Amino acid sequence: MAVREIRLFGDPVLRSATDAVGATDESVRALVRDLIDTVALPGRAGVAANQIGVSRRAFSYNIDGRIGYVLNPVLVEVRGEPTLVEEACLSVPGLGYPRLRYPWARVTGVDLDGNAVDLSGDGLMGQALQHETDHLDGRVYVEGLEPEIKRQAMRDIRDSPWFHN
How distant, in Å, are the alpha carbons of 1, 34, 45, 133, 140 from that of 11? Predict the structure, then answer.
């Protein structure tokens, strides 16, 4: 069990779609423990496996005091009219921008025992479900910003002390 270092924007692991989690073995159990430990820190709503350097389809969440995880999540449904919401990301530290997101989302997947997991919600939960599945598909939230905002975000990222070309 460990809090893992978050990979930052520009790291190739964040740009590739992740691989499905296969049979549950000790490496998968360790991944889930690390995801939960890493998301449990204050101010964190979600952590995708590739954000900790593991190209597997899994994420953890910490919404309204509820901490959990899902393996092989699939975004199966969104509802409502997309609206601009402030969004930030652990992989783009210190920066946040308005991003279009659906107000409600639903993800299905499995747990370590192969039982079905069905997560849904609005507000922060809906946003997190969309954000984390984007990560697992190799997309960081700044890629979905409106063009003018994205140009500013990319300038801000290049000027950030943590960004390395």
Answer: 23, 19, 21, 18, 11
Residues with catalytic annotation? 132
How many Å apart are CA 71 and CA 164, to the nearest integer? 31
Q: How far is CA 47 from the centre of its chain?
A: 5
In this structure, what token pair is assigned to residue 74? Answer: 């699939």
pLDDT at position 1 is 63
- Whole-angstrom distance, CA of residue 49 vs CA of residue 61: 11
Give the model confidence (pLDDT) of 114-165 as tens digits. Answer: 999 999 999 999 999 999 999 999 999 999 999 999 999 999 999 999 997 6
24 forms bridges with which residues in the sheet? Answer: none
Which tokens hold the place of 102?
A: 């659906």
